[in-house]
Amino acid sequence: MSVDEIFDKLLSSESIFKNKRVLSHDYVPEILPHREKEIQKLAYILATALKGGKPSNVFMYGKTGTGKTAVARYVLKKLSEKGERLGLDLSYAYVNCRYRKTNYRVLIKICDEIGCVGLPETGLPTDAIFDKLIKYIDMREKLVIIILDELDWLVKTSGDDVLYQLTRINNELERSQVSLIGITNDLKFREYLDSRVLSSLSEESIVFSPYNAQQIYDILKQRAEMAFRDQVVDDSALRLAAAIAAQEHGDARRAIDLLRVAGEIVDRNGDSKLLEKHILMAKDEVEKDIIEMTVSELPLQEQLILLAIVKAHSNGNGSGKITTGVVKNIYEEICHELGYKPVTLRRINDIISDLEMLGIISAPVVSLGRYGRTKLIHMEVPIKSIMKVFEREEKFSIVLAKNK
Ligand SMILES: Nc1ncnc2c1ncn2[C@@H]1O[C@H](COP(=O)(O)OP(=O)(O)OP(=O)(O)O)[C@@H](O)[C@H]1O
Ligand SMILES: [Mg+2]
């Protein structure tokens, strides 16, 4: 089919979507089914603000796609609308730390969100920005709620200095007050957070449990009605998408992705109804995308170890005989080639466990008799998807190209 023909085909056939935007990641619907309790709890905590008090700090956690961001954004939006109607001076700053991993960038974003604009994107010491933030907030005599979403990214990358300062900010403010809402999907985050910071951050906490298949179905049904034209989505397709996402630790984002991609496939194929088979096709596409994103976001040392595993695989060790020792040797060669300092064996083992947690590999410990124990590493995802990420980066592609 020529490009012109593709365009003509697309123009002549009607899309099954009526409003695709409602399937985008940042869309928050007016009703969030199965999150009534969490919404109420957060609303109760924050309602103090409407009477001029300082709400407790809140720590919200739960696995990915369980509605934490959606609930926080929903309640904050309602609160600020109510505040405005009552003529109260309260404002909030929403920061996603995944995209602003440094203390400096997080502080700048907070300033930006509450209207303290014009600060340089780099250059000043963090303390100077912090002082400006304090002065700005105090000058306006108001309550500021700071939401630090995906907070683990900040702490993992830059430590907990700023978080610590933020939990103590009220000691420095004379006329205003700040409440914090910290959000994370890293269930181990609490363990590596300083205990003083943790206790001050989690004056209240809200746990988000994974959705089951029925709950995801309800969420999908609501979205499908808004997103697609009438009667184009088969109910069994919704059930299947919900079942798949429920297996994936109850991730509503995954379910909505499946629905969106399946709709795109229907349009592309010129089909008229969204059926189970489209969900299955979408599943493959979405999985590929997720693997690629996960790998490309890994820290450097994790990527190097994974690269060593991939290389061990293509060197013919694919039949389940990749031991930690094999990986270590190849990894050290790669470090040497690229000029990086290799990490210790202990750290290599930690990284292998991390990769296992992400579902990229499996690495059961096996006994080698009198030679001790080792991990036997298997790839759990198609190696092609991982290669695709590495091949995009010159330094990695050089390593992959060698002695193939
Ligand atoms: N109860 C719900 N009703 C309707 N949509 C929901 C519900 N829960 C989650 N969603 C939708 O699912 C997607 C994922 O939700 P959200 O972004 O809130 O997850 P999260 O818990 O913040 O995940 P992460 O930890 O990965 O950031 C969003 O598009 C959101 O609108
Ligand atoms: Mg989120």
What does this structure look like?
By secondary structure, the protein is an alpha/beta fold. The protein has 3 domains: 36-208, 3-Layer(aba) Sandwich (Rossmann fold); 211-295, Orthogonal Bundle (Helicase, Ruva Protein, domain 3); 298-401, Arc Repressor Mutant, subunit A (Orthogonal Bundle). The protein is built from 19 helices and 9 strands. It has helices at 3-12, 36-47, 68-85, 103-113, 126-140, 151-158, 161-167, 169-172, 189-192, 195-201, 213-227, 235-247, 252-269, 276-297, 300-317, 324-338, 345-357, 383-392, 394-401; strands spanning 58-62, 90-96, 143-149, 177-184, 204-208, 322-323, 361-362, 365-367, 373-379. The structure holds adenosine-5'-triphosphate and magnesium ion. Adenosine-5'-triphosphate binds next to helix 3 and helix 13.
The percent range for strand residues is 5-15%
Query: In terms of quaternary structure, what is this?
Result: single chain
Number of strands: 9
Strand numbers in spatial order across the main sheet: 2-3-4-1-5
Task: Provide a concise account of the structure shown.
The protein has 404 residues and is α/β, with parallel strands linked by helices. The chain is built from 19 helices and 9 strands.
Keywords:
single chain; binds adenosine-5'-triphosphate; Rossmann fold; binds magnesium ion; Helicase, Ruva Protein, domain 3; five-stranded parallel beta sheet; alpha/beta; four-stranded antiparallel beta sheet; 19 helices; Arc Repressor Mutant, subunit A; 404 residues; 9 strands; 3 domains
